Amino acid sequence: MIQLKNIEKYYSSKGIKHYVLRHVTTTIKQGEFVSIMGPSGAGKSTLLNILGMLEEPTYGNYEFMDEDVTNLNERKRIELYRNHIGFVFQAYHLIDEMTVYENIEAPLLYKKIGSSERKSRIADLLDRFNIVAKKDLFPNQLSGGQQQLVGIARALAAQPSIILADEPTGNLQSAQAEEIMQLFQKLNKEEGITIIQVTHSEKNAEYGNRILHIADGVVKDDVAVRDSVKI
Amino acid sequence: MFKLNLKIAIRNLWKNKGFTLINIGGLAIGMACCLMLLLYVNYEWSYDKQFKNIDKIYITGLNLKFNGKLATTMALPNKLSKAAMEELPGFKRSARASNENNVKLYSHGQDNFKLTSLYVDPDFIKIFDYHFIYGDANTALNEPGSLIINETTAKKLFGTQNPIGQRITYDGKKELKVSAVIEDLPKNQSMQFDVLHPWSFLDQINPDDKDNSWGAITCFTYFELKDNVSMEATNALLQKFIVNKEPELKKMTYEPFLFPFAKRHLYEDFQNGKSVGGRIDQVRLFVFLAFCVLLIACINYMNLSTARSEKRAREVGVRKALGSARNSIMGQFMIESLILSFVAMLIAFTLLEVLLPYFNNLLDIKILINYSSLPFWVTLCSLVLITGLLAGSYPAFYLSSFIPVKVLKGFKGSTGSLSIRKVLVVLQFSLSICMIISAIVIYKQIQYMRDKSLGFDVAALAQIDLEGELVKPGKLEIFKNELKRAGAIEAATEYAGAFTRGGNITGDLSWPGKPKNDVSIVSYRSTGFDFANTAGVKLVAGRDFSPKFPADTTTSLLLNQEAVKLMGLKNPIGTVIHWGDNPPLKVVGVVHDFFNESLGAKVTPTVYYYNLRDSKSLLLKLSNKQSLTASIEMIKEVSQRLNPAYPAEIKLVSEGMADKIRSEKLLSVLSNIFGGFAIFISCLGLLGLALYMAEQRSKEISIRKVLGANLSDILVLLNKDFMKLVIISNVIAIPVAYILVTKWLEKYDYKITMNPWPFVLALLTSIIIALLTVSLQTFKVAKANAVDALKYE
């Protein structure tokens, strides 16, 4: 599904190149649950941003679903966002002016899905995440964990094939974090959604089936998670 | 999608009530100003456009040499209309109109009214399609004794009776019969009258006029062209028409030309025989002003919206990551600004309806909002759209351009947009400062013209028309003596007409040493005895007209200084001057130039001669021993007694003079009001910007305070940036305003000398106002508790 070849990213200042990513080459298949780990400043988020096409690599080749997306124009990128990619952010990034219901509805509107279909999908998501009672509240009326649930529901609404999550539990208490991770695992197992997450926590990484260790912009380790560790 | 956008827009506006209020307030005021000005412009623009055939109706102008300059007048020989109609192709109809001596007494039974009339050819009412209530255009003016009156006059004279066939006494002498009644004329028509007489009636009153030479220019001439006949072609035929008839006139040019009647009101100024604008300049200025005010309001909106960008940036980033196209984000911001501009329009509209009567009153016009007119609604809607789009475009472009990854990582207000915001503020303030300076200069020029020594005793002068019994010299003497005895007046003299209005001119004077080809034109006014004394005009040399010198009634002249200069007389007293067929005339006195006919322009060379028959009014110097009203009451009482048939109408010369600066006053009023609003709106914008800046810098300020900065340090720090902007605006605005006002002042022969103080005043005003506005906000920030801002980091 995703093929990275020799991805490099650097910023040059005063003629000196500061590498963020170097020679990143990897393949992620449909249905994988990949965790990107590494110390602060290692380039995890940059890698995720490149995967999400929010940033462009300085060098290298990126194929998404057998299509070269290294230099994609805005319209095509938006098409991909609408149909294939769901984002989950550490800071939730819900739209403050919209209710829970409307936040989840937004990507469906952009995808131009008919209103009855929209209604049933949202009802389904609200139901699944147990937030039916909260659908008319605004984000600032919810707890962090609830906001992140809404964030995930929003990411799922458009039925993406891949979810990119940048430290989805970074702002949450451990109990809530566990809940979110279980949800991810369930989505990955039962619906076959590819998930790529950036995380600091070894424990969270264990929920996935593959871990990419990054340090100083280089992929140091690429290990499969043993089934036995999983619950 | 649209519904959601709408909902979110409304929520957003509601959440930021302060910003919304400033935004809507600014936009509403801007729109109200703009609408008001546009209504006024429309009013001026629609002058005379009510006539059905307006595109084919032309008024005739005449270019003639006038003291070495080519001048243009709308007065023409009364023979032209008929002769041109008969001899030249292309004309469908032609008509003359004369407004000579046009205010007369009309009576029916016991009711006496002074009404304004026009003497016209029968085709006049076919060229101009007035709306007939009774009678019709084909027959109404066929008899010399018939007349057309307007609705108001009909009501005044006959109440609810059918006025057709009713008798009206004209000037206490002639019996006339009403043949038609027309609807009242709209105020925005350049020809205003209560009564229309047939030209044949004028011929009865002035039988000699029929034999006027081609050189005598006495009436207006209107032509209606046939379809498919161009004005240019006709003008080519018309150009030499008069000089071919009368080759003598060639040295004075005498070239008639057609001018579209629709343009008569707005393009009334001519220079060198070419139309050079006129009121249209003012109208253009107002259109410009209207859009400036609107632009200032829009800039406000742009500024405030982009200032809030930081708050909106995250929303934009998330939406983009969710797959929203840039267009739909732009749409969201556009909808917001359209909602705002719609609400603003509702408020502006209410303001307009409330203020319109005051505005009408102030400018002495009659603007009504025509709710049934399509153009009005179209304008209104397009104004909402234009404002919404104009105001929303920049924020929409700017905000939708955010790159998601940047804003999601944490966006610290981009510096680039701040500089654009600064440019916008500078633009806004420059416009406002220009308006302030112009308003001051206009005000000063008006003051100057009003306070200028006029050279005559303006405060003490009043006038009364000589009519009825007062035309008889014997009765007039009694009248004057009674008034003097009663102590109402100190002196009185007859005068040609209204003292503050222009009068006759002639090129027929000759004086010793006048060059052969000189065609100088001189004004002439008839007076009675005691002229200089009554008017309070200084005599430079010689003496006033006086009954002690019998020759004064036939062969004496007074000149003004301009006339002496024109004639190049070293020793004017005793100079013999020839004037047409009159016996040789002798100059007995020279009066100081005085400004009774125009305030800003030079005095024209004028001769004064004694003639009671030519004098249509009596100039009265009111006594200063009693109050003005007492004197006027007394004059009224005496006039009523001696001349009972005529209502005594006493006009103060000072009022006539005030009328002369009407257009300047209008400009002054409008520039004051709208300049004031422009500054107000700009300040709203500044307030918004200060609000934003205070919010953005609250952390910095808190840190500074913790480090030991005191209140004044922080106020200086915060206000400095804004003051810089205001100073830059001044630097831009002052030269521009200087150029504009010097250009405006060019048209006055007598004008204020430009000095720096209007500019200094504008500079200080703008700085003080801006300082107050900004301090309102910065003070709050500077006083705030430092911990509050710091603890959330």
Automatic annotation (TrEMBL), chain A:
Residues 2-231 form the ABC transporter domain. InterPro entries: AAA+_ATPase (IPR003593), ABC_transporter-like_ATP-bd (IPR003439), ABC_transporter-like_CS (IPR017871), MacB-like_ATP-bd (IPR017911), P-loop_NTPase (IPR027417). It holds the Pfam family ABC_tran. Keywords: ATP-binding, Nucleotide-binding, Translocase, Transport. It comes from the Bacteria. The keyword Nucleotide-binding applies. One of its GO terms (molecular function) is ATP binding. Coiled coil: none annotated. CDD domains: ABC_MJ0796_LolCDE_FtsE. PANTHER family: CELL DIVISION ATP-BINDING PROTEIN FTSE (PTHR42798:SF6), LIPOPROTEIN-RELEASING SYSTEM ATP-BINDING PROTEIN LOLD (PTHR42798). Belongs to the ABC transporter superfamily. This is ABC transporter ATP-binding protein. It comes from Pedobacter rhodius.
UniProtKB/TrEMBL annotation, chain B:
It holds the Pfam family MacB_PCD. PROSITE patterns: PROKAR_LIPOPROTEIN. Residues 20-240 form the MacB-like periplasmic core domain. Keywords: Cell membrane, Membrane, Transmembrane, Transmembrane helix. InterPro entries: ABC3_permease_C, MacB_PCD, Macrolide_Exporter_MacB. It is found in: Cell membrane. Residues 288-387, 672-785 form the ABC3 transporter permease C-terminal domain. PANTHER family: ABC-TYPE MACROLIDE FAMILY EXPORT SYSTEM PERMEASE COMPONENT 2, MEMBRANE COMPONENT OF TRANSPORTER-RELATED. This is ABC transporter permease. It comes from Pedobacter rhodius. The lineage of its organism: Bacteria, Pseudomonadati, Bacteroidota, Sphingobacteriia, Sphingobacteriales.
